[in-house]
Amino acid sequence: MKIGIIDYRREPPGSVNDLLEAARRRGVEAVYLKLPLMDALIDDGRIVVKQRDEPVNIDGAVLRGIGLVMSLDVFEKRLGVLEALASTVPVINNPFNALIAKDKWRSLVRLSLHGLPVPDTMITENPFSAMRYAQAKKKIVYKPLMGSLGLGSALIEDPDLAFQTTRSLMNIGVPSYLQKYLEKPGYDYRVFVVGGRVIGAMRRVSKNSWKTNIAQGAQGVPVREEEAPEIFATAVKASAILGLDYAGVDVAEDVSTGRHYILEVNAFPYWEGLRASTGVNPPDYIIEHLIEKIKK
Fold it and tell me: pLDDT tens, 113-135?
């Protein structure tokens, strides 16, 4: 058996190396595939994927990322190559589903349509709409539409700032993704789902910031299912609705309502914080899940 780990970076990042090592521990040959160097062909009716003119002969693959800043044409090319590969072998996560999950707005719409709880949210290019939304909600958070790690997120309490932020972004062709601020109890949850079951979860506790991302200084505290059964069940449902084989699901409580809400579902989740706090190594589970899909 031979599998590929796909990413866009010149050198394999830590998460890719973790997956390569997890595969090798199971006696599975694993190779790093660089998405910018991959091509897809229709050759006499056959779908063929190559890297540097060499056919990509693998039995399955794990997708870790497609890139950050690129033109629409490059984005469509990379998605097309990934979909071509996924038509011939199992790719987790499925490229199309992963990109819906990566888009915070589209993923929340899909979850909401299936009845799962998500925060009040707006997407707009109109500064006046943003200002009125900030006036109505009193306290909102601006988030990059396809960002991660809490980077770029900003708390907005002044409607004029919402107006100015959206107008500035509009001038460079970027929409505003605005979300009602949740009064968290000082923490939220990251739940890691693989193959339809939770393999590990943690509270992300922050004492000095409203942001509860591990990358922003929060501390991870392991959580067992019996401590938060509703959170675990919600994470599994969210992952299934978005069609993800593996996912990091972020869930937060709003103390003003006593309800839990899905903040986002990460199709390319990092796991260093979860591994450090729980001792669970997600790459082992991801590779095992891929092996099972290949054998089917």
Answer: 999 999 999 999 999 999 999 99
* pLDDT for residue 150 is more than 60: no
Residue 171: cis peptide before it, omega within 30 degrees of 0: no
Residue 262 has what pLDDT? 96
Q: Could you give all domains of the chain from N- to C-terminal order, each with its CATH number?
A: 2-92 (3.40.50.20), 101-116+183-295 (3.30.470.20), 121-180 (3.30.1490.20)
What's the token pair of residue 136?
Answer: 């109505």
What is the per-residue pLDDT across 87-116, written as a single tens digit (0 to 9) for each?
Answer: 999 999 999 999 999 888 999 999 999 999
The two tokens of residue 91 are 């790719």
pTM: 0.89
